[in-house]
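Is 7TS placement plausible here? Inputs below.
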Amino acid sequence: MKDASVNAATPAAFDVERIRDEFPVLNTTMRGKPLVYLDSAVSAQKPRRVIETLRNFYEKEYANIHRGVYELSERATARYEAARETARRFLNAASTREIVFVRGTTEAINLVAATHGRANLEKGDEILISAMEHHSNIVPWQLLCEERGLALRVAPIDDRGELIVEEFEKCLSPRTRIVALVHVSNALGTINPVRELTRQAHRCGAVVLLDGAQAAPHLPIDVRDLDCDFYAFSSHKVFGPTGVGVLYARESLLEALPPYQSGGEMIESVSFEKSTYRDIPERFEAGTPNIAGTIGLGAALDWMTELGHDAIATHEAELLAHATAALEAIPEVRLIGTARHKAGVLSFVLEGVHPHDAGTILDHEGIAVRVGHHCAQPVMERFGVPATIRASLSVYNTREDVDALVAGIAQVLRVFRG
Ligand code: 7TS
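Reply from A.M.:
I modeled the complex. Tokens:
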């Protein structure tokens, strides 16, 4: 099972088998075959550190937060707020006041659309997105546009799946009030030059939201260096629990926003005449939050930081190069998304085979990939395909996983072509 070449090609400190040992699920079998998990863009598997943090919290430390006068609740509150500091460090935000815990990337974007969007945009204003957005960075803006009479503009992408920067510039105007862009595309793997795009958007006076759902698991994120106004990511894609995520918002902007959801936890005082709201970030965290999930997210971010972004990037780049070469060597494969700057996402179609049929046969080999439109239907349309097969790589994947995929594709082609 162990391939010495994997370790030889990556830094000495990085041992993929040791990483795999931390993920219990990777030792299981599916359909009687060893699991080959190539669907981390949908959701990443969880290391023991995260699983044990959840277990420990529920066994020994569980209480509601921010309300108990007793020690158990104080401890739970401290753990929850420590996760906020961990998230701040992970993003290099200036202050924990800029870190809002939400349900995930989807809720983060909806929050910004419903608060900043409603409070600041008026008829005739424009929102600019790109042609490679996930549905969750399209539909909230569409709804806002319908409600407020705004225009949604879309910067096009080229045949490699790269944003056409000159066209993006042409889409910007003094009417552009929000620019919402994906940092790394989930359907294509493209890494966008978001620092430069943010600079251009700011020159026009727009605020910038970056969808970091697929970037946070792979790249070091520095919101101060990017100079973005909002940055969103989901815990479950960075090896943490489901149901929680982070919205970073520049302090001056967040302070000016009206509440999003309302109720307990976000208020200062309530009377039937008037209620007043708490300071940021609590103003945006109404109700009992996902306490255990947030603490688990903190453990996941610590785990990633200890592993090191350089080690993650080096390993994934080596795997991506191997996988790209292997898939390109199969004549029936057409890769969708061949950007020069790419994360570990391999979207492809197989000549003469529907992606769903391919997915089913791969599943019989124990190989988990996603087939479909990946919640990015406009990307599928751009490339003239109804769906793709998508293998997505993570820090725990090996060359053997890629080789299993290649063998699985050969099996698919045998079944369909005889
Ligand atoms: N943005 C991007 C770029 C994503 O890839 C996803 C989820 C989301 C937003 C939404 O994240 P959520 O955690 O709020 O659901 N991406 C995928 C995917 O690629 N396949 O399934 C979900």
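Short version: Residues 41-42, 104-106, 134, 136-137, 182, 186, 211, 213-214, 234, 370, 374-375 surround 7TS (CB under 6 Å).
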